[in-house]
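Format notes (please read before filing issues)

Several people have asked whether sequences and structure tokens are stored in separate files. They are not. Every record keeps both together, in the order shown below: the sequence lines, then the token lines. Line labels are part of the format and must not be stripped during preprocessing.
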Amino acid sequence: MSIEEPLLSENIEGIKNLSQHTSTPIALGERLYSRCDAKPYFESRAVDILQPDVCHVGGISELRRIATMCETYDVALAPHCPLGPIALAACVQVDACSANFAIQEMSLGIHYNARTQDLTSYTKNPEVWNVKDGYIDLLIGPGLGIEIDEEQVRRLSAGAEPWVSPGFLGPGGEVRE
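Then the structure lines:
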């Protein structure tokens, strides 16, 4: 379908060069944090699919603005969302009103949730994430369309330590991510 994040996102010239040498669509954007970060990719025509993360860009409003910019530049929208039900529900709301929406990432059954909580664990209406023929139904409940199981969230978070990204270092000790 596409080449995802073929180079570090700060290497716009390299991504533009690669895009001129392949017919496979280039997708990136999960490490971009605003419309301003995305704009150079649009202007240089370096990407075909943008993957902004609703949590990284600051929420639904900025994600929607980025989606509109994508449409203006004829770039498909495929929001990045390996997170939980609130982030995914926010993405789905933007997906539903974006003419250039292509595909939605979701963490249902993803490897790092194996034998622990999953996308459906924290909601009282987990059926909203039932996938049928590659699709989920539009969320129709109030707000984002999901009902958080606050009692379960409190129970599971009791005594929890804040999560810290492990980071990724290269062989020379340089920060990679």
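For reference, the curators noted about this record: The CA atoms of residues 149 and 155 lie 10 Å apart. The longest helix spans residues 60-72.
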